[in-house]
Amino acid sequence: xxxxxxxxxxxxxxxxxxxxxxxxxxxxxxxxxxxxxxxxxxxxxxxxxxxxxxxxxxxxxxxxxxxxxxxxxxxxxxxxxxxxxxxxxxxxxxxxxxxxxxxxxxxxxxxxxxxxxxxxxxxxxxxxxxxxxxxxxxxxxxxxxxxxxxxxxxxxxxxxxxxx
Amino acid sequence: xxxxxxxxxxxxxxxxxxxxxxxxxxxxxxxxxxxxxxxxxxxxxxxxxxxxxxxxxxxxxxxxxxxxxxxxxxxxxxxxxxxxxxxxxxxxxxxxxxxxxxxxxxxxxxxxxxxxxxxxxxxxxxxxxxxxxxxxxxxxxxxxxxxxxxxxxxxxxxxxxxxxxxxxxxxxxxxxxxxxxxxxxxxxxxxxxxxxxxxxxxxxxxxxxxxxxxxxxxxxxxxxxxxxxxxxxxxxxxxxxxxxxxxxxxxxxxxxxxxxxxxxxxxxxxxxxxxxxxxxxxxxxxxxxxxxxxxxxxxxxxxxxxxxxxxxxxxxxxxxxxxxxxxxxxxxxxxxxxxxxxxxxxxxxxxxxxxxxxxxxxxx
Lengths: 164, 364
Fold this sequence. Notes:
heterodimer; A: alpha+beta; 5 helices; elongated; B: alpha+beta; 2 domains; four-stranded antiparallel beta sheet; 6 strands; lyase activity (chain A); lyase (chain A); Phosphonate C-P lyase system protein PhnG (chain A); Phosphonate_metab_PhnG (chain A)
C-alpha cells in the first residue's frame, strides 16, 4: 500500500534489526507520552542541537484497520487523527514522528529526540533522563489499570443444595 | 428543489449569536470544559468517535460541547472536520487478540481461560437514580488486585478455542486482501463483508440496536449468544514510507463483540455455529452487540438463508445506517422550499377547481 518513492528510500537509513527494534520502542514511548510530560522532560535535556524541518508538523488521518471476527481479513474500522513531523539536525541526522492526536509541538520535540537518539554518544544519557521515566510511567499505569480490572474478575463457587 | 433566496443574513447572524449565548446557559453556573466532557461524559465521547469514524477524544469532546450535547450534530461536526485533513495512509490491522483487557466476558462459557472480567460496567447495577451524585464528593476508590495471572488480561479470543474443534466457524483470513473503503468509493450492492463492517462500524447505534432487536424477535431468526465481549486497549501500528518499519502511533480503546449464532449447516457445510462481529471505538458495548447481530443477519445470502426480513436486506440496512446522511436529508426539509411549495399549491388549487366545477356540472 505504501509504495516506495525515491525520496523516501533516500531518506531511509539502512538499519540493523536490533537498531530498528530500539527505535520502535522509543518512538512508541514518544507517542504514548502526554505533551505536558514530554515538554517537561525535554526542558531538562542539555545541549539541544540545531535542527530544521524537513517536514513541518502536519495533522492528518490514518485509516485504522480491524480484522473480521477479530482474527480474519482486514476491514476499515475508522480513522485516527495523526500528526507527523520530520527534522534534520545540523549534523545531518534525520528524525521522524508519527503520533496519534493533533499536537504539533509534541511531534516536533519527538522528531528531534528521534534524531538525537540515533547518535550513540547521546543515547545513554537521553535514555536515562527522558525514556527511562516514560517507560516506568507507562509500565506503572498499565499495571495499575490491570490490577483494577483483575479485581473485577468473577470467582465462581458452586452451591451444594440439599442432602443426598 | 430549492432556489437561492436572498435576505435573512442579519437574522441568521443574530440567530447564531443567540445560539452561542444559549449554548453557554446560565453564566452563574461554571462553564463546562472540554476536559470535563472527555473525562466525565466518556461514553458520549466514544459514541461520537465511533459514528464520526475518527478516533480523537479531545476532538469528539469539543464537538459535543459545540453541539450542546446533540450527539448526531457532534458526529456531523467530526465528519466535516475529517474532510479537511489529508490521509497519510492505512494502519496495520489492530490485533484485538492482544488487547490489554479491562473487561472480557462470555455469556456462553463460564470457565474461559483468563476468566470473566467485569470491568467498569452498568451490568448488575440497580438502575436506581443515585442522588448522591448530585452532591460533590469523591467516588470510592476502585479495588486493585495485584496477584493476577498474565492470562487474565491478555487472553486470546474465546471463540478461537471452539474454532479448533470446527464447532464454530473461523473467519477467513487473507492478509493481502484490500478491503473496500466507503469514504473513497460509492456503495455498490451486493457489498462484501469487509466493506459492510466499515459501514456498520460508523452506523447509528440506535438504528442498529432496533434492527438487531428485530432479528431477536423473529425477523431473521439467528438465535444469538454473546460468545465474547471485550474492552481494552490495542496498539495502532503504521508503516511510514520514509521508515519502512511499523511504528506504534498510539493506543486506542476498542469494544469488540463476537456473537455466536445457530446454523443448521448446508449441503456443503456441516452444522456449526456461525458468528457475527461488532466493534466500536472506546467503550460502546451496546453498539458492538447490535452491530454483531446485524453483521450476522446481513450474511444471509452467503449462508444460504432466505432473505425475508429488513435486517437481512443489505441495501435497506446499509443505505440508511449513516445518521449524518439521514439527518441531512430529513433536516433539509426545514430549509426554505417556498418555490417548490408554491408550485404544489398552484397544482392543488387547479385540481380542486376542476373537481368543484365537475361537481357543480353534475348537480345541474
